[in-house]
Amino acid sequence: MADIKTFYLPDLGEGLPDATVVEWHVKEGDSIKxxxxxxxxxxxxxxxxxxxxxxxKVTKLYGAPGDIIETGAALADFEPDPNAxxxxxxxxxxxxxxxxxxxxxxxxDDGGRVVASDEGGEVQGSDREDEGTVVGAMVSGSHVHVExxxxxxxxxxxxxxxxxxxxxxVDLARVRPSGADGVVxxxxxxxxxxxxxxxxxxxxxxxxxxxxxxxxxxxLPEPGPAPSRTPTSLAGKPVRTxxxxxxxxxxxxxxxxxxxxxxxxxxxxxxxxxPTTLVDDADLHAWxxxxxxxxxxxxxxxxxxxxxxxxxxxxxxxxxxRTLHPHVDIGIAVDTDDGLFVPALRNADMLDGHGVRAAIKxxxxxxxxxxxxxxxxxxxxxxxxxxxxxxGRYATPVVVPPTxxxxxxxxxxxxxxxxxxxxxxHRRMPISLTFDHRAATGGEAARFLKALxxxxxxxx
Length: 460
What we know:
Layout lengths: L4 E4 L9 E7 L6 E2 L4 E6 L4 E5 L4 E6 L6 E3 L3 E7 L32 E4 L26 E4 L3 E3 L2 E3 L1 H10 L17 H10 L61 H16 L2 E9 L9 H15 L5 E4 L4 E4 L5 E3 L1 E3 L2 E3 L2 E2 L7 H16 L13 E4 L19 E5 L3 E7 L2 E15 L5 H15 L4
Parallel strand pairs: 9-10, 16-20, 20-21
Antiparallel strand pairs: 1-8, 2-4, 2-7, 3-6, 4-5, 6-8, 11-12, 13-23, 14-15, 16-19, 17-18, 21-23, 22-23
């Protein structure tokens, strides 16, 4: 009887309990070499390649594209080739393998690494804590390696590029590569989507020889437009007026990737933090000339952090300890179709207005193409949500541990303001400050808010 080995989904270095299958690079019965791409998995931040742990035949795949696999659950079965060199059982593969450990079992510190979509190298520091996050803190390995482009179907591209192509409905086989060694880049996919040169489902870019023995299924007709909704049914009777049942309320969709992690982190924050919110308006009437509002917001937050350090801090609720930070790293909430990302604007207290704008532009671009390094998504000391770019005046934004405070900036408005001797119309920005009342007093929060408003009121 053949010796069958089961490969369990490893900890991909992000501390998440599961990942979603994006694409299998093999099928059952295929032969595969050690460290060749087995599949692409989507985590909370990126699409990463999972390498094969064996040289041999794939006998079983657990899950189809779109399925969620728990960390430590079976991912694939292999029949190792007895004549090929295999990795030693004790040799590190760069991930944590094996079934999920029971609660209370120790986790060895083996310096795991993750294949991630970034340009970083080794993440410095020996402590394995809070090195990668989308919203909140997650444990990861201490090494981050550049993602390698795999050649699949004759096309060289990293998993993040393949995921973007799938999202934009672009056929990678028809995209003209501009990267080194014929690698398709993020920009190549975006350009193809913009000019419509490689639509998914179009005629193939290259003919497939008959000798390939590929079975071509008959093409199905394109689905017609959905019937319009009317007050009457097809039978001419009025549609239901009763509340919809659970069955009729829509098709449930399981959260995946970023949204799945966001749901967990928000629930944990709600359970752990004691939030209190103060609101006021920043008066911008004295501003001279056109100014960068976001840069002014960042500068005002820095000024408030220097005036009241208690809110530029981390709080450990378990040990009731507080860490005040001499530097200011601001987590900037970025809303995307995939969910919420919070990249860190590092050393905001050392940047001028131009530096702030350039850094924010870079972070947003990296978030949009899912190439942002893990190190940029963690370790911020205070947060900013500029929701007023869309709508809304005041809010109660969520404080995510270990941070103590988050500032919400509402929509600019022109308000009638009473002044000495009459009234004036001033441009004002609503500001909401939510803080963890376990770590800061109401007085500290009020003084922080006043320092922020005073800086925003400066002419320039």
